[in-house]
């Protein structure tokens, strides 16, 4: 079992996955331009700023994650070659921290934001508020979809890391 290859494959899959944030960012910005150019009603015009903001936020998230995960690929090899055992330990700590963030932010906070935005649609009468709420829901759904698949990948990566630790523990136990 080559944990360096597993870590590198995980990081490459993350780069691919997080590039979808950039794709959706472009789609939101294009939608904003479309509403700006073609919007005739107050409701259509109300979408210009919210979709532009959502696109900008998704672009920032996407670019940040793509560059972070690309740099990890080279850092993994350096750290692993320096000390494989401490690499696995540090990755386990990082992965556990990330999984806690997913449980808190992605699977609790984002659904809460969606519920609040849905309530805004019902109770707010102004087109800007409704457009903002609908755009927020759309952006949060995009984040949930992308981060849902990322969580599945990091769960699998965590299991691989734990297998390496168990294997090393068993090897050390057999030697003693």
Report a brief summary of the structure:
This protein is mainly α and 176 residues long. It is built from five helices and no strands. α1 (3-38) packs antiparallel against α3 and α3 runs antiparallel to α4 (84-123).
Structural features, described:
By secondary structure, this protein is mainly α. The protein has one domain (3-175). It has five helices and no strands. The protein has helices at residues 3-38, 42-46, 48-82, 84-123, 127-175. Helix 1 (3-38) packs antiparallel against helix 3 (48-82). The chain is elongated, with a radius of gyration of 21 Å. The two termini are 23 Å apart. The model has no long low-confidence stretch (mean pLDDT 93).
Order of helices and strands: HHHHH
Task: Give the number of domains.
Answer: 1
* Radius of gyration from CA coordinates: 21 Å
Helical run tally:
5
The portion of residues forming beta strands comes to: under 5%
End-to-end C-alpha gap: 23 Å
As a percent range, the share of helical residues equals over 70%
Salient structural properties:
mainly alpha, 5 helices, single chain, 94% helix
């Amino acid at each position: 079992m080559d944990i360096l290859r597993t870590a590198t494959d995980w990081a490459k899959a993350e780069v691919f996955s997080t590039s979808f944030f950039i794709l959706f960012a472009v789609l939101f910005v294009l939608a904003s331009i479309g509403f700006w150019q073609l919007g005739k009603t107050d409701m259509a015009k109300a979408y210009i700023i919210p979709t532009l903001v959502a696109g900008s936020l998704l672009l920032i998230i996407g670019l940040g994650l793509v560059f972070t995960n690309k740099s990890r690929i080279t850092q993994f090899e350096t750290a692993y070659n320096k000390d494989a055992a401490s690499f696995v330990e540090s990755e386990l700590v990082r992965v556990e921290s990330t999984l806690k963030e997913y449980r808190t932010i992605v699977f609790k906070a984002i659904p809460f934001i969606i519920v609040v935005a849905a309530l805004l649609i019902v109770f707010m009468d102004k087109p800007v508020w409704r457009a903002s709420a609908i755009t927020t829901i759309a952006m949060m759904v995009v984040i949930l979809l992308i981060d849902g698949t990322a969580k599945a990948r990091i769960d699998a990566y965590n299991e691989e890391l734990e297998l390496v630790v168990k294997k090393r523990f068993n090897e050390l136990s057999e030697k003693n």
